[in-house]
Amino acid sequence: MKNLLYIGNKLSKHGLTPTSIEILGPLLEQDGFNVVYSSSQKNQARRLIAMLWSIFQFRKFDCVLIDTYSTTNFWYAFTTSQLCRCLQLKYIPILHGGNLASRLKNNPKICQMIFKHSFKNVSPSLFLIEQFKLKGYENIVHIPNAVELENYPFLERKKAKPKLLWVRSFAKIYNPLMAVEVFASVKKKYPEATLCMVGPEKDGSLFDAKRKATDLNLDILFTGKLSKADWINASQEYDIFINTTHFDNMPVSVIEAMSLGLAVVSTNVGGIPFLLEDQKDALLIPDNNVDKMVESIDKLIKNTDLFSKITASARLKAEQFDWQGIKFKWSTILK
To answer: What is the predicted pLDDT for the residue at 17?
Structure first.
């Protein structure tokens, strides 16, 4: 049995959205790996200390997986990777940060210290594969984010109604205020329209979204964080999934929406065009363009054939990300 130490933000018990460490880790355990996790400390300084201590404590393990983000948490990846280098411990950064391409440009020497010395760099996003190779990184492999498709029943909807669903942490990079503005415009065309926004607070954006909804006299259902089962169950009441993000790579929430039979309308940023094909399995619009998103929603409601084509094609694409297929890619690297 291979022993893995998984470094990441294991914070769902503090009310935050589960990240890769809490999704991929248990899947690897199912596949026969022994996985130890670090860290679930809420305080950032304590979390970093716990991560570093766990690397020293489990320095005899076969490999360290490091969830790698592009903003503040980027420095967790830098610090932990350098300790792995000092201890001559094999490590694999898993590239999640929506703005990692900017890190490669703005912090080239620091990025080299992390990514040039790793055993492999794993990217769920083909966009980041391209960006890393342009900077000369060849030790990078593509392993998509995975879902257990059996947990996502496909609901065939005959036609789209103006019932909108948004699922993400409330953070400025995911632009939740745009969802509120889109709903305000949709509501003018379709007074019966509804919007549900699912996700926990992260940087004050939930408060801003609620205040904007109040200012615009909009009745939006803010559920807070829901369990996976609860939001999957709630999704049956909605037809269109709106993804308003400024930055993204390969969002699991979008794959989940595709699996469930929701039509996806998304900003065309970062790795999104590597995941979704406009007019085939989603409708893509420019970043922060409220009018274009409203126009796309209207098109799905009025054009039943387009709605049916997109939702059926999206489900077929989502099947590519089923864990039963993806697990062999991880086994090839780790075993």
So the answer is: 85
